[in-house]
Fold this sequence. Notes:
By secondary structure, this protein is of the alpha+beta class. The chain has one domain (10-209): Glutaredoxin (3-Layer(aba) Sandwich). Helices cover 26% and strands 26% of the residues. It has seven helices and eleven strands.
Amino acid sequence: MRSRNLIAAAAVVASALTLTACGSGADSDGPAASVSGATSKPIVSLDSPLEKPDLVLTDTEGKKYDLIEQTKGHPTLVYFGYTHCPDVCPLTMNNIDVAMRQLPKAEQDDLRVVFVTSDPERDDSAALKKWLGGINKKFVGLTGSFDTIQAGARSVNIGIEKPVKKKNGDVVSTHGAQVLMSSPKDDKVHWMGMQDASVDNYSQALPKIVKGQNP
């Protein structure tokens, strides 16, 4: 891993974030990701920016994808989730899709939306391609070693845990519900979209974020 300064925003955000549990049987009995106190907003501006997760994974075409290098100079949204999620993940990605389509075409082409699976055992390249293709074919899907993905998520204060199979056969995956949002000006994460961020919130934020401005 490249040497990264990951102190930024830890005091403001990390202690306030919790995990969301999603199960194949709509078993979402875990706490939803949230931010407490004055920072409880749909789009949160970090007091100090974070470096993007240093991840080299496999994309939907089966090719190596270096997250830092291939999103360099582009406004970028990164989300850790999985395709079997019954609620939070598809809603979040669809909200981003609707908001993204309101941007001018040039800005849509410039924006990078990266979905990193938290369930790589089931989410291979083909599964990610099929699922994301039903939302937006411009979205990038990444899979690989769970340990690598978990370490990358933790580097930006996003918690994910290995999926657990219950006695009834349902699989519960616990993962963060925040969308990392980086500026094209310095390639650092300055904002987070929280679980309750709506289409309207993203529609208002993205035009500014693609220009590196505070939403």
